[in-house]
C-alpha cells in the first residue's frame, strides 16, 4: 500500500468526522503529519510520505474543517493544536512523533506546548516560531504568487515553494506531477471558510508574543530551504536556536518547499532522526 492508493478513513472526534490516511508498518511510535496552509491530504508529497512510511507508521489527517473533515476551521493556531490533540487521542495513541510543514509546523508547536506528554520527537519544516516577524511580507508574497498563478495558469505553489531558476522550475514541475499521481478517492478541496480562517490564524500568530520554546525538551529536527519566501529561513534558524534539543538543516538553492525539492535527503535525515 502506498500513498497513491491507501484508502481514506474517518474517525469521530468529539462528534465531528475527521478524515485521515494511514500506512506503513504496525507497531512503534507513529508519525503524525500536519499539513500546510490551504492544503488537504492530496497535497502531501508521495515521495516524502512513502519514504518515511517505509520505516514508520504514518498517519496524515485533515484537521477540523479541512478537506473531507467536518466542522469549521478555527482561526487560531492554539485551537488548531487542540483539535490535533483531540484527533491523536481519538486514535487511541499514547505517544506520537509529529511532522509539521509550514502552518502545520506552527500547529505542531501548539501541540507540544499544550500536551507535551503526547510527543516523543518532532520535525518542523518550512516554519518558524510565533511572533517571528515578516507577516506583512508573507501576505504580499502570497498575493503576488496567486496573481502570477492566474496569469500563467500554473499552480501558485510553483511560485511560493520553489526558486525561479532552472533547478527550481524542474523541482516544481516534478513535485506538482507527483501530487497528481493519486487519481481516485481524492480529498475534497479546501473551502473558502477554511482558507480565511487559516490566513487569519497565521496573521494573528505572526503578530503575537513569542512562545517560550525553551520548555520544549523533546528532540526537534528543524528543516527549511535557504531562501524561503513565505517563512524567512532566519526564522527557522532562530526557532532552532531557542529549542534546547534542536538540530537545524538548511537545504541549498531552495525555498519554502525545500524539503520536497530535496526529498531524498529530507526523508533520509528524518528517518535517521526519528530512529536515533
From TrEMBL:
Top-level taxon: Bacteria
InterPro entries: AB_hydrolase, AB_hydrolase_1, AB_hydrolase_fold
This protein's record includes keyword Nucleotide-binding: no
SUPFAM superfamilies, per database record: alpha/beta-Hydrolases
Keyword terms of this UniProt record: Hydrolase
Molecular function (Gene Ontology), one example: hydrolase activity
Pfam families assigned to the protein according to its UniProt record, in alphabetical order: Abhydrolase_1
Residue ranges of every copy of the AB hydrolase-1 domain listed in the record: 30-262
Protein name: Alpha/beta hydrolase
Amino acid at each position: 500500500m502506498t500513498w497513491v492508493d491507501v484508502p481514506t478513513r474517518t474517525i469521530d472526534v468529539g462528534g465531528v468526522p475527521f478524515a485521515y490516511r494511514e500506512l506503513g508498518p504496525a507497531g512503534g511510535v507513529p508519525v503524525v503529519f500536519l499539513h500546510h496552509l490551504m492544503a488537504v491530504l492530496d497535497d502531501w508529497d508521495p515521495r516524502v510520505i512513502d519514504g518515511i512510511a517505509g520505516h514508520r507508521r504514518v498517519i496524515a489527517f485533515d484537521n477540523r474543517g479541512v478537506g473531507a473533515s467536518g466542522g469549521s476551521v478555527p482561526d487560531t493556531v492554539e485551537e488548531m493544536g487542540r483539535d490535533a490533540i483531540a484527533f491523536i487521542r481519538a486514535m487511541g495513541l499514547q505517544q506520537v512523533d509529529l511532522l509539521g510543514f509550514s502552518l502545520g509546523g506552527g500547529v505542531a508547536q501548539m501541540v507540544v506546548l499544550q500536551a507535551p506528554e503526547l510527543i516523543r520527537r518532532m520535525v518542523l519544516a518550512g516554519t518558524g516560531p510565533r511572533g517571528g516577524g515578516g507577516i506583512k511580507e508573507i501576505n504580499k508574497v502570497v498575493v503576488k504568487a496567486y496573481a502570477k498563478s492566474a496569469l500563467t495558469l500554473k499552480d501558485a505553489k510553483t511560485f511560493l515553494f520553489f526558486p525561479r531558476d532552472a533547478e527550481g522550475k524542474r523541482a516544481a514541475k516534478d513535485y506538482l506531477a507527483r501530487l497528481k499521481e493519486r487519481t481516485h478517492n481524492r480529498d475534497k478541496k479546501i473551502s473558502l471558510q477554511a482558507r480565511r480562517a487559516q490566513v487569519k490564524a497565521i496573521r494573528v500568530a505572526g503578530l503575537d508574543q513569542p512562545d517560550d520554546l525553551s520548555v520544549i525538551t523533546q528532540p526537534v529536527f528543524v528543516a527549511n530551504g535557504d531562501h524561503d519566501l513565505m517563512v524567512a529561513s532566519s526564522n527557522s534558524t532562530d526557532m532552532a536556536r531557542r529549542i534546547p534539543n534542536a538540530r537545524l538543516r538548511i537545504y541549498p538553492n531552495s525555498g519554502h518547499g525545500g524539503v520536497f525539492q530535496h526529498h531524498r535527503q529530507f526523508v533520509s535525515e528524518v528517518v535517521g532522526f526519528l530512529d536515533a
